[in-house]
């Protein structure tokens, strides 16, 4: 890390849905931010999610948030619900929101590299 990034380091925890995790990982690899990836399961529907631990200097947190929003932000999708007792031709697609990212911004007061 450079001198400037050592004086005010931040860690962003970005929790994304499983399907968005590959896109987020690719974007982070291109941007050269150091990160770790932790798979998890949770939420109301017990859906697969991934938590990214991302290191960056404070002055770059806004740029990083915007990148995460572009790659994994909420969007509209249409699904056809499976309903019992309906003929196959009468399914009506329903609008749902998918994706999204939850971001926690943590100030790092101290860290050590051991080894």
Fold and architecture overview:
The chain has 3 helices and 6 strands; from the N terminus they run αβαββαβββ. With 115 residues, it is an alpha+beta fold. Strand 2 (35-42) and strand 3 (47-57) form a beta hairpin.
Which descriptor suits the 3D outline? elongated
Strand % is 35-45%
Overall average pLDDT: 84
Q: Residue ranges: pLDDT <50 for 5 or more in a row?
A: 1-5
Widest sheet: strand ordering: 2-3-1-6
**Residue share in helices?**
25-40%
**Beta-strand segment tally:** 6
Topology pattern, helix = H, strand = E? HEHEEHEEE
Major beta sheet summary: 4 strands, antiparallel
Structural class: alpha+beta
Measured distance between first and last alpha carbons: 16 Å
Name the assembly state.
single chain
Total of helices:
3
Structural topology:
Elements: H1 3-7, E1 9-17, H2 18-31, E2 35-42, E3 47-57, H3 61-72, E4 75-79, E5 94-98, E6 101-107
Antiparallel strand pairs: 1-3, 1-6, 2-3, 4-5
